Amino acid sequence: MAFYSTLMSSIELKQGVLNRGETLFQGIAASAPAGAAVATMTGAAGYALGALPLSALIAFFVVVLNAYIIKRISSRMAGAGGYYDYTKVAFGPVVGAFTGWMYILYQIFAMAFIALSISVFVPALLSEVFGINIPSYTWLPLLAGTMLFGYFVSVVGIKQSLKYAMVMGTMEILVVIAIGLAIVLEHPAINTVQVFTPKFASGGISGVMLGVLFMYTSFSGFGTMTPLGEEAKNGKKMVGNTIVISALILGVFFVFAAYAFTVGWGPLNMSTYATNLVPGIILTKSDLGLIGAIIITVFYINSILTDIAVFFNSSSRVSMALARNNILPSAMSRIHHKHQTPHVSAAVMGIGAFLIAAVGTVALGGGGFNIFLVTGIVSTLPALLVHAIANAALPALNKRETRKWGALNLLLPIVAIVILGFVFYGTFISISSTVIIGSVIFLVWVVVGIVLSFARKKSYVLDKKYEGLVGGQE
Fold first, then answer.
1. What residues have CB less than 8 Å from 468, skipping those under 6 apart?
2. Burial letters for 63-97: b for 16+ Cβ neighbours within 10 Å, e otherwise?
3. In 3-state terms, what secondary structure has residue 274?
4. Least enclosed by CB within 10 Å: which of 2, 73, 192, 300?
5. What is the pTM of this model?
6. Helix residue ranges, H only, 120-199
7. Which domains does the chain have, with CATH numbers?
8. Apex CA 305: angle with CA 303 and CA 310, to 5°?
9. What SS3 class is residue 195?
10. Residues 76-103 pLDDT 10s
């Protein structure tokens, strides 16, 4: 008895429309290079301190390893489901559906986290750096405006949204590099290779490795290009190649940014760097003056807005793929007749992320900072789980195709999964109310995901192109 039937949609995503540059910047922009460089690296700095560049270098290696594994998997298939497609073919509909559920949790809370990076940080940034105070209620229009911006840029068309990401992503990277070079060249005496050793870390090598845990999150958007497999030219080849290239570009960028801001702040003073809201902007103002601070602030905001747009791209396509397979409501599989984008699923994801951020801001207080921390935790945990399951798909897929596991196909995922497990563990180093709330949300979603994945097995609808390939068919 077969648990599958085929479904041909009358309206499909437009195939073969994305070139290499457009596909590449989906992953680059999703990591918000400028935003991470001037603000969110502070989590890693809290443990690595003056050894932040070393933590960035090690995280670079981990990300490239994961990117290479995904490259090997994506050479076998390309679709709008991304990691969901990989795991359903490797392990069958139940594991595939569970991976899809986890990916949705990761994406929707990541979108809330990104929007909160505007509604929480921009008012505080204007006040602390520029002395401009705006009304306290401004967080709501900032939050709504960020979500609406991301939605419309994404829905207007995949090529248009990624052309925007290419231009803005390139500009923000160049601006941060220019500022970093100005910092290190203006004061030659501050340069030192000792920041690439554990010397300045809190607790030595343990502080470095804890820094790696948080640096990994700066790269986390690199995999968002996998759902573009259906629209990229020669998707099986292009997605794999660009995911490795994006990991390399982001790695070099983050290592340089970590170095420039560490030596500029002072390796022995990094404990204060970690406690500042946007230390990169503060340092820029100190070294380059008000104009420099204004420029980097503009590109910080631009980085977040570009980030939310490309996350709409990825989240809407995966949720659309789940709807095609009857895992989510069928209405979410609809494609806009003109723009050929999954506008319904994009709207559902955007509304969900907005409600999480808005309700959390009111319920948890702290001006939105508490829900900002919760969304960061909730988005990190399922992202790590999804990456681990996707990595495990490599030997399973190879076994299905060649009847052999393959030594390299086994070794690479094992190494990557062990590292991801350590990163997962590191999330719980500091137990607080936000960690508890985030962990409970994650665990509840895991239980619900397992139940629904089994419950939907018999009503699962298989894409025709995967018919006969999905693991577990009877």
1. none
2. bbbbbbbbbbbbebbbbbbbbbbbbbbbbbbbbbb
3. helix
4. 2
5. 0.89
6. 121-130, 139-155, 158-186
7. 14-466 (1.20.1740.10)
8. 95
9. helix
10. 888 888 999 999 988 988 999 999 999 9
